[in-house]
Here is the input.
Amino acid sequence: QVHLVESGGGLVQAGGSLRLSCAASGTIFSIYALAWYRQAPGKQRELVAAITRGGSTNYGDFVKGRFTISRDNAKNTLYLQMNSLKPDDTAVYYCSLGDRFWGQGTQVTVSS
Here is the structure.
């Protein structure tokens, strides 16, 4: 059974940083493309960042160089380093394995 657990969310002031982690178990982590999505209240879920098995990355247009996605296959862990956070980044952030498996989400709140 695949299990994903996000951590690292919290409350931060605008301009601050957070590092999200997503620990996976129950699957061969390295074979999947991985991604972070977010969903703000009243809005649709949107892609934040994705990383392929080979390490290629792509980001939502709103990221504009502020976030970095990375993966550690030895630790079965996905990361999202978020810098220069803005109030508009406030959302629940979810990790995904192959868009098939999802974590429970971690809340990120950015105060102005």
Observations:
- The mean pLDDT is 96.
